[in-house]
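hi! just following up on the protien thing from before. the input was this:
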Amino acid sequence: MKLFSNRQITVSPEDHQFALRVKQDVDLAMQTLNQGNAELAVSMFHKILARLKPDFPGYDLITHNLLIACKQRIEQMLKTGDHAGTTPHYRTVLSLEIRGAMSQDREFRQNFAEAIHGIGNSYFSEGQFEAAAKCFRKAILVDACPSYHVNLSNALSAAGMVARLSDFGPWLEKDKLGHHLFITCMPKSGSTFLKNVLCDLTGYADHYFFFAHGQNEHDLYLPVMLKFAGDNTVSQQHSRASHANVQLMQAFEIKPVVLVRNIFDAMMSQLDFYNQGAAFNSYHRGDFETLDEETKIDLLIQYVAPWYFQFLASWQKVEEEKKLEIMWLSYEELIADKPRTVENVLKFYGLKHKRAEIENTINSVEQDGRRNRFNRGVAGRGKTRLSQAHKDKIAELKRFYPSVDFSRIGV
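and the predicted 3d structure came back as:
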């Protein structure tokens, strides 16, 4: 006996007559749906399912039929602007489960999830962002297709909703998440030193949660986060507060330390870093080495400094909107009193170590040039090395963010 989706099912002889009656009712409901009367078809499929148990061979197929009928009716009503009228069908969609024999059929689950995802797209197109987000979430629970996260991220942002762990790893258990110490930082702000001290003190693993080094932006990368979700980690990344990054931090319960530095000093340290060979991480290739010092500084001001302003502006917005609990920290604070700074960071994460242990760990890291990475370890170089014209060009960038306070980076 064939039902919708052209699936063949087998029933026992004693259930044959009952199955034939079910088939007749399903055929009639499908005919009604194909004629465009989705409202009646939804009611008919509801009644059919109410007579069945999940172990009935065609239970999941009929559930899929009900989903398709709901999808068609929701889309009809959305086109007429009747958003509120879709509510009963929307609730039905969110309640549907694959409970029978098809629960282990990958292709069936994918088709089921894709239908729900399609409903979410319809809601999103009509500006119904919360409903869209809930549909995308439901689709991910059915089949965690990576592409669904794109639309879910957009819907969560548009609706102002907080991300959940199940949005990214439905199989993960919240109480089994590891403890993640996360330093998001401006380049050349002492972050490598701080990370290494924290790793040595806590014994936590040193992990990056981005895809790759080099020219890559340090956005959080879901496959790596899923892999190490249960580990205790310390991370140090140059990550702006994009919607996707913030959502992943919300879901994986990461509260970041936001490490900043005086922008003029940062530019000088970045110049030294590039002059030492790190320019290969940029897109300027070997050309950087051929430029005179003045042109190099102009390049950094025009192409690198804007990232620093975006970095601070993005995290300030997160703080203002209370999307995450964050801790602001400056390079200047760090170098002025390293033991106290480390104590404060540990406290932010609910950790505590004896002062002597902290001091010994700092001394150990400082003696290892590869793990220290401080260029000069001083503040104020930018004011003396940069011309007034260069400082004015950098400070001028703040005019693009009239609502942002850039005093944390010295402008």
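The first strand starts at residue 2 and ends at 3.
The CA atoms of residues 303 and 388 lie 19 Å apart.
cheers
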